[in-house]
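Quick one, tokens below:
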């Protein structure tokens, strides 16, 4: 069975898109077929995965531009007498196991219809197929390509589209960054997510006879990714370190208890196993039980990774040299790349453990 994982925080700028791409790529290195689903109207995940030249060509070419998530579900949202069908999805650049379900800049146009369909809880037959349509399309694509893991990048909002994407997932990751607004977001996130989940529990049977019923799934919290902090002596700079610790504390004291009350957490033993197994390769200040990892901001390598069409951790000496990186800068870059690789190896392995059936609370 495919595991679907949402990358979500209702605060923007936390690294959701890059995290989705990096985790998806790492999962392919572990032998899995992976689907990246771009649920954000900014379409940044599609651009990152395809590479910016291919991205432009994809939406210009009449043979591919309609192969995207919005046009894929259009028959249902526009009331056409036509069943949903899987279409040809592009591969991410330089990775033949990483598939992309491209986004669309006007996906939010369906927000109103979807909101009404969910608010009326299946009482209007003309809208009954809408809440299940997006995940039905994803399922058809997963079947077409033999997908093992699907990673869904959500926009930073609390609207009906995000609710719908979230409700059909098996797990979710919360990327954060060390600023006061991330702390505020974490403090309120549990209320919103449990409200969405409780709605689904109360209404799933009302959509059981729809052509596209709601997906039977339970979104479980995988953990946070604390990203984009300044690196100093292999640790976060002190002010950022203090903020991350406050976020970790809020996750433990506020977010997890709210999620646990709705059954949206893995077993405590699995969080402890994940933390203990991988703490030796993560920085010593990655102490939060629910923190998948801390990802420092190596801005100097982003350009090279983008030009090379791979994540930072997949860069090598040849790729660095081809981008003009030489000498002392090259010598400093290679250990940073290795650190990125270790961090995302740990993050991805933790997710594989926590999403497993053995780690679900019964």
């Amino acid at each position: 069975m495919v595991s679907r994982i949402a990358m979500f925080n209702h605060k923007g700028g936390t690294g959701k898109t890059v995290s989705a791409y990096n985790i998806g790529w790492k999962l392919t290195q572990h032998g899995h077929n992976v689907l990246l689903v771009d649920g954000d109207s900014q379409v940044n995940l599609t651009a990152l995965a395809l590479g910016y030249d291919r991205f432009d060509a994809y939406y210009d070419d009449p043979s591919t531009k309609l192969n995207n998530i919005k046009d894929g579900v259009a028959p249902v949202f526009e009331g056409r007498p036509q069943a949903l069908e899987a279409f040809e999805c592009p591969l991410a650049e330089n990775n033949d196991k990483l598939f992309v379900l491209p986004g669309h800049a006007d996906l939010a146009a369906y927000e109103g219809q979807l909101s009404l369909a969910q608010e009326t809880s299946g009482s209007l037959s003309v809208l009954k197929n809408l809440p299940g349509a997006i995940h039905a399309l994803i399922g058809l694509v997963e079947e077409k390509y033999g997908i093992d893991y699907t990673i869904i990048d959500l926009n930073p909002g609390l609207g009906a589209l995000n609710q719908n994407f979230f409700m059909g997932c098996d797990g979710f990751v919360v990327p954060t960054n060390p600023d006061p607004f991330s702390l505020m977001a974490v403090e309120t996130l549990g209320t919103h997510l449990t409200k969405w989940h409780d709605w689904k529990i109360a209404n799933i049977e009302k959509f059981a006879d729809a052509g596209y019923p709601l997906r039977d799934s339970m979104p479980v919290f995988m953990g946070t990714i604390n990203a984009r902090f300044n690196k100093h002596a292999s640790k976060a700079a002190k002010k950022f370190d203090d903020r991350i610790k406050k976020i970790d504390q809020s996750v433990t004291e506020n977010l997890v208890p709210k999620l646990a009350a709705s059954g949206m957490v893995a077993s405590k033993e699995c969080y402890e196993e994940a933390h203990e197994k991988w703490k030796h390769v993560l920085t010593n200040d990655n102490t939060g039980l629910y923190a998948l990892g801390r990802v420092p901001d190596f801005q100097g390598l982003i350009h090279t990774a983008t030009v090379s069409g791979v994540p930072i951790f997949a860069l090598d000496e040849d790729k660095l040299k081809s981008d003009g990186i030489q000498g002392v800068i090259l010598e400093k870059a290679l250990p940073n790349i290795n650190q990125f690789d270790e961090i995302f190896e740990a993050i991805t392995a933790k997710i594989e453990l926590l999403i497993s059936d053995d780690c679900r609370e019964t």
